[in-house]
Amino acid sequence: MPDSTTKDSGDDTTTQVFADHRELLFSIVYNLLGSVADTEGVLQDTWLAWAPRNRAQIANPRAYLVRIAVNAALAQQTTTSRRRETYVGPWLPEPLITEATDATDAAEAAVRAEAVSMALLVVLETLTPLERAVFVLHEVFGYAHVEIADILDRTPPTIRQLAHRAREHVHARRPRYQADPRVQQEVTERFLAAALGGDLDALLQILAPNVTMWTDGGGKAKAAALRPVHGRDKVARMIAGVATRAPKDLDIRYRTVNGDPSALLFDHDAPFAVMVIDLSPDGDQVAGIYAVTNPDKLTRIEDEK
Question: S-S: 203 plus which of 236, 253, 255, 293, CB 3.0-4.6 Å?
Fold first, then answer.
């Protein structure tokens, strides 16, 4: 039986190994679930599975932890799907405040930003759970098909088929491109100025003809639409109507949300909405608007002045 010093040392090692991989696990699971609360729950389950294990029997702790976390996330999706069936209006991922990347490699920066973008997560919602897991692990985190097969307990040919189907589905709905963050910030500011100022002409100019607006109020925010709104004229009219009912003197804070320059709107000190703008491939018009106003999804938003 080990003495207390040995036990403490082992506990410290167990905790440190998990802590070393926590950021990776959080990123993978969040991309699978789109909910910070559910992600934290899965990480707790992963820790409970990891803590009592005999580390001497685990040759690759990272692979073991990823396998446990991914499969726990897939199990959680069953509960999540049932909740979505009764969700009022469009469901959007919970906004995640992220630090602006300082990656020197442009390609790496693009992948890191796209990994958690609101627009991509919305598309991933249309995949099956297994397709989503394969896409996230392969396309975002660079896992080989053989590695994913081991994680998901499937054959490599099955994983390759899932990857092909998921990739075609995603790219058909969201062609791969990366907006210039400075342009995205500037367009976001122009959009909000026109929207909150009631400038319909400016709105019509900045919106792409096929723009779509998602408003996630969860049945708790009065201004949220019950389904996505498509088309420049309909979106502009909706925004103009919402602006007339919005609180006066909303305070706007610009932050990086899910990897994109975005806007946080506050009514005094209380979070009112998170606005994420997705640009058209040519980069000068708004192709997608994601507005999260459900107060349950804004509890982690703080007014950092």
Answer: 236
